[in-house]
């Protein structure tokens, strides 16, 4: 299984110039190979994350993917998850704006935080603290500031960082198979000792 996961991650990361013909049709200006790959990563993260038992109202409740802020995916992510199921759960994609009802954020099981929301990351982490939501972003420092996964683009490959402490605080269990492929990020600790 680990070998299959590595092959999948490598296949997703090999090149940003790859795009299936079905998704290449009807591509908008915000659609790109980079976001096709990132959408594939988000879908695959759902396979390797376990949410607490009481997270879903019913056994077939969908996995809600929220896109907060400016949407870089266009229709790509909708097409990636269309008709897909993980553990009997389908997917619903919602677009959200900062300042909307916090209830909308809290319905998400995966929340992609767009780069347009970089000034709100600290506040967002506080709002979502302790909730079983897999936060995914791409802004530098996202994982260090308390986001769970940061997608990183470098050398024409998409890689990812994981803040294991943030995942634990959210009650999420990330498969060790996924963690072996990630860069593990530690949140900076605040030194509360008095100066001597």
CATH top level label = Alpha Beta
Strand order of the largest sheet: 3-2-4-5-6-7-9
Distance between the termini: 52 Å
Shape: globular
List the total number of helices. 8
Number of strands: 9
Listing every helix as H and every strand as E from the N terminus to the C terminus, the arrangement reads HHHEEHEHEHEEEHEHE
CATH fold annotation = Rossmann fold
Fraction in helix: 25-40%
Total discrete domains: 1
Structural class: alpha/beta
Describe this structure in words.
With 196 residues, the protein is of the alpha/beta class. It has one domain: Rossmann fold. Helices cover 30% and strands 19% of the residues. The protein has 8 helices and 9 strands. The strands form 2 sheets. A 7-stranded mixed beta sheet has the order 3-2-4-5-6-7-9. Strands 1-8 form a two-stranded antiparallel ribbon. The longest helix is centred in the N-terminal third of the chain and has 13 residues. It is globular and about 35 Å long. About 11% of the residues have low confidence.
Q: Which helices and strands appear, and what pairs or packs with what?
A:
Elements: H1 2-13, H2 21-24, H3 33-45, E1 49-50, E2 63-68, H4 76-81, E3 91-96, H5 102-106, E4 110-113, H6 121-128, E5 134-137, E6 149-154, E7 157-162, H7 164-169, E8 173-174, H8 176-179, E9 183-184
Parallel strand pairs: 2-3, 2-4, 4-5, 5-6, 7-9
Antiparallel strand pairs: 1-8, 6-7
């Amino acid at each position: 299984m680990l070998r299959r996961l590595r092959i999948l991650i490598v296949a997703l990361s090999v090149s940003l110039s790859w795009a299936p013909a079905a998704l290449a049709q009807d591509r908008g200006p915000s659609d790109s190979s980079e976001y096709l790959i990132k959408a594939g990563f988000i879908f695959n993260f759902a396979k390797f994350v376990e949410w607490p038992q009481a997270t879903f109202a019913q056994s077939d409740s969908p996995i809600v993917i929220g896109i907060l802020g400016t949407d870089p995916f266009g229709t790509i992510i909708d097409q990636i998850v269309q008709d897909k199921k993980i553990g009997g759960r389908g997917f619903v994609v919602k677009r959200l704006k900062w300042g909307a009802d916090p209830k909308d954020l809290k319905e998400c099981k995966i929340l992609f935080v767009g780069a347009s929301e970089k000034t709100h990351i600290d506040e967002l982490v506080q709002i979502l603290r302790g909730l079983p939501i897999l936060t995914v972003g791409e802004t530098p420092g996202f994982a260090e500031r308390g986001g769970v996964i940061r997608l990183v683009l470098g050398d024409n490959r998409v890689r990812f960082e994981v803040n294991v402490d943030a995942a634990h605080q959210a009650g999420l269990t990330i498969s060790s198979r996924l963690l072996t492929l990630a860069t593990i990020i530690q949140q900076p600790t605040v030194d509360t000792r008095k100066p001597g």
